[in-house]
Amino acid sequence: MEISELKARFFALLREDVEFRYAVAGLLGLEEILRRLDRNEAELAKLREDFNKLREDFNRKAEEDSKRFISIEAELAKLREDMNKLREDMIAGFRRHDEEFARVWDEIAKLREETNRLREDMIAGFRRHDEEFAKVWGEIAKLREDMIAGFRRHDEELAKLREDMMAGFKRYDEELAKLRADMIAGFRRHDEELAKLRADMIEGFNLLRRHIDALGARWGLLSERAFKEGLRSLVEREFGFRVERWVRWDGEGYVHGHPSDIDIDIAVHDEKIILVEIKSHVGRPDVSTFKRKAEFYERVEGRKPDRLIIVTPYADENALETAKQLQIEVYMGV
Predict the structure, then answer these.
(1) What domain range is 323 assigned to?
(2) pTM for the full model?
(3) Which residues, including other chains, have CB under 8 Å from residue 22's CB and lie 6 or more apart?
(4) Does 182 have pLDDT greater than 50?
(5) Which of 164, 188, 207 is a domain's end point?
(6) Are residues 153 and 260 in the same domain?
(7) Quick one: which H or E segment has residue 190?
(8) Position with higher pLDDT, 70 vs 175
(9) Do 32 and 122 belong to one domain?
(10) Which of 42, 117, 149, 227 is most deeply buried (CB count within 10 A of its CB)?
C-alpha cells in the first residue's frame, strides 16, 4: 500500500468513523474539547425547544382565555381590569426575560471569546502535531511491509470466522423460531388472564361506587348545605354551644381573593368567642381559608377569637398537619 493510499484511508476514517475520530482526538488532547462543544450545542437546542414550548403554551392559554371570556358580557368590566393587570405582569415578566436573555447573550459572547482563544490554541497545537506526524509517517513507512503481511493473515482468519458466523446464525435462527412460538403461546395465556382481571376490576369498581354512594347518602355528602345544617344542631348538643351565623361583605377580597360575602358560625361560651367551621370533607385549602376567615373577623369586629374549631367526619393528613401549625382544633368524632 502506497503512502498516499494509506493517508487517504486515514483521512476517510477520520471523516466517517466517529469513535476513531474521538480516539485520534484523545491522542491529540482534543477529545474533551469536542465533547464540550457537542454538549454546548445540545444545551442550546434544548433551550430553544423550551422557549418555543413556553411560547406555544402562552399562545394556547391566551386563545383559550379569549374564547372563554367572549360569552361573559356581564363581567367585561372586571375582565378588562384583570387583563390590564395581566398586561402589567406580562410587561414585567418580559422585562425579566429580556434581562435574562441579556445575561445569556453575555455568556454566549464570553463563550465565543473562549472559543476563539481555543481555536488559536488548536492551530498552534496542529502545527506541533504536523511536525509529530511527519515523524510518524517515517515510522509508518517502516511498518508498511509488516502491516501488509499482517493483513494477509487477517484475511485468512476472517474467511474462517465468516464460515463460523454463518453456522452460528443458522443455529440462532432455529432457536429464535422456537422462542417465537413459545412467546406467542405465552401472550395468548396472558391475554386470557388480563381479560379475567379486567372483568374482576370492573366488578370491584362497581362495588366501590355503590359503597361510596351509600356513604354519601348516610352523611349527606351530596349536599354540603344540608350536611352543615344537620350537623350544626349536633355541635350545639355535643359542645353545649349556641351557634349563630355571622355574615359580612369582604370588599377587598381578603379571604377568597375576590369580593364576596363571608359567613362564619360563631358560638359564645363563658364569654369566649369561638369560630366553628362545619364541612363534610376538609383539605389543606379549607384550613387555610378558615384561618383567613378568622383574621377577617378580627379585622371587622376588632376582637381576636379565643378558639378556632373545625368539625368534619373526614380530614386528610395534610389538613390535620396544617391545622396543627395554625392552632386550629379539628374534631372528627361525628
Answers:
(1) 224-331
(2) 0.35
(3) 31, 34, 35
(4) yes
(5) 164
(6) no
(7) helix 76-219
(8) 175
(9) yes
(10) 227
Residue 235 burial (CB count, 10 A):
20
- 3 state SS of 95: helix
Please give the biggest Cα pair distance in the chain: 111
The pLDDT tens digits for 79-103 are 788 888 888 888 888 788 788 878 8
Q: What is the Cα gyration radius of the chain? A: 38
Q: How many domains is the chain built from?
A: 2
Helix (H) or strand (E) holding 289: helix 284-301
Is residue 315 classed as helix, strand or coil in its secondary structure? strand
Contact residues for 264 (Cβ-Cβ < 8 A; gap 6+): 245, 246, 247, 275, 276, 277, 293, 294, 297
* Cell, residue 321: 398537619
Strand boundaries in 151-278, DSSP class E: 243-250, 260-269, 272-278
CATH value at residue 286: 3.40.1350.10
Do 119 and 230 lie in one domain? The reply is: no
236 shares a domain with 150: no
> Which amino acid does the sequence have at 62?
A
Assigned domain for 236 exists = yes
In eight-state DSSP terms, residue 316 is -
Exposed (0-12), middle (13-18) or buried (19+): which is 115, by Cβ within 10 Å?
middle
Q: What is the DSSP letter of 29?
A: T
